[in-house]
Amino acid sequence: MRIRVVLCLTLIVLGCSTSSTRMGEKIMPEIDALPVVKELPDPFRFMDGSVVKTKADWQRRRVEIIAMLEYYEYGHMPPAPVLHVIEESTTPVFDGKALDIRVTVAFDDKPLRVHMGMFVPQGEPGKKYPAVINTEATWGKGMRDAARLMIERGYIFAGYDRHEIDKDDADRSDGVHPLYPGYDWATLAAWAWGAQRTLDYLLTRPEVDAARVAVTGHSRGGKTALWAGALDERFALVAPHASGAGGAGCFRIMGAGSESLEAITAPTRFHYWFQPRLATFARRETQLPFDQHFLKALVAPRVLLSVEGLADLWANPIGTRRTYEAAQPVFDFLGVPEHNAISFREGGHDVTMGDWEALLDFADKQG
Ligand code: GTR
After folding, report:
1. Ligand 1 center to residue 95 CA distance, Å?
2. Ligand 1 mean position to 26 CA, how many Å?
3. Domains held by the chain: number
4. What is the domain-level CATH number for residue 231?
């Protein structure tokens, strides 16, 4: 009896409760009840077998896909909080061409404090600038060249310290998790929440062109950017970079040397990035009722750009191309075929100045 009680508690803590209606979502079958589907699942087919025929149907299907990805992959976030912004500093940088603005942000009545920052171009009073939110701190030395480029190109460059929201480890007793009990969001979702809160802050600023805010990030930050941007329709452009497994990479289709679902969710590695249910699909990927092209499809009709290194095999460039192809019918259906993009470059798992330039070239075209 004692063992049973402990087990139940463990399941609740991990968000494995079988009462899947707890957060109002549809009832999702557990893995043993899911059929084997070798090919990539059809984004247009509802769980009840009916098919999307109209744009209104797609809106309902989009909600169903979100519920599915929350349930099996990333967990559920709490609703958007009220932000309390504390101004920290405003410093002219880059020979006066930009302001480096730092703030600390609190949420609802919670004790959490998160540092955010943005570089804002100067010189044209009253002008609204497009913005790029990166899913990490953007004020460190390593981001200096990217920040300078953004300013030269007329973009606001913003970021936040995602590790203040959730440290990159399996401990759920610090950061944001204990503050919102009852939500099974894992680390990627907590970080994605941070990108959305940074957007909340940016939208309070008169310098920001609200219609032209992009979210980007590299690797685990790319997975974060894709989940944040897929969910939050205020992001006009979603640009994951080398995001791989759990991001833009396909689980079913993998090139040689790619990170598998089993590898990423291993107990010794990054299981805590995901809702624990995802790990049960290791070597059973064909029972996933989705694949990562569903995540990409959530961005439509907004604009998606995934940037990949051809030699970055761990991030599964072949499978990322497949998710690009498999999401395309949704962009076509919504009348924006050119809003789904993928860019390959030579090289491996790093962020080059060329990558930032490619992002901005692409973003310029959307203006
Ligand atoms: C790797 C991990 C990848 C990717 C990468 C990173 O170790 O396996 O999924 O996220 O880390 O974030 O740099």
Report:
1. 36
2. 31
3. 1
4. 3.40.50.1820
Pocket (CB within 6 angstroms of ligand 1): 219-220, 244-245, 259, 264
Q: Give how far Cα 272 sits from Cα of 68, 78, 244, 275, 316, Å.
A: 18, 18, 16, 7, 21
Best residue for ligand 1 mutational test, from 314, 316, 350, 351 (most atoms within 8 Å of Cβ): 314
Edge-to-edge strands of the sheet including 156-160? 83-93, 98-107, 113-121, 156-160, 129-134, 208-218, 237-241, 303-309, 340-345
Question: Does residue 5 form part of some domain?
Answer: no
The preferred substitution site among 135, 220, 268, 273 for testing ligand 1, maximizing ligand atoms within 8 Å of CB, is: 220
Residue 3 counted as domain residue? no
Is the dihedral angle over the CA atoms 192, 136, 186, 36 positive or is it negative?
A: positive
pLDDT tens, N- to C-terminus, the chain (367 residues): 333 333 333 333 333 333 333 444 568 999 999 999 999 999 999 999 999 999 999 999 999 999 999 999 999 999 999 999 999 999 999 999 999 999 999 999 999 999 999 999 998 999 999 999 999 999 999 999 999 999 999 999 999 999 999 999 999 999 999 999 999 999 999 999 999 999 999 999 999 999 999 999 999 999 999 999 999 999 999 999 999 999 999 999 999 999 999 999 999 999 999 999 999 999 999 999 999 999 999 999 999 999 999 999 999 999 999 999 999 999 999 999 999 999 999 999 999 999 999 999 999 999 7
The parent domain of residue 168 ranges over: 13-365
Q: How many A from CA of 296 to the centre of ligand 1?
A: 19
CA of 218 to the centre of ligand 1 (A): 9
Ligand 1 mean position, distance from CA 191 (Å): 15
**Parallel, antiparallel, or unpaired: how do β-strands 156-160 and 113-121 relate?**
antiparallel
Q: Is residue 7 part of a domain?
A: no
Round to whole Å and give the CA distance between 132 and 27.
37
The pTM (predicted TM-score) of the whole model is 0.93
Q: Residue 196: inside a domain, yes or no?
A: yes
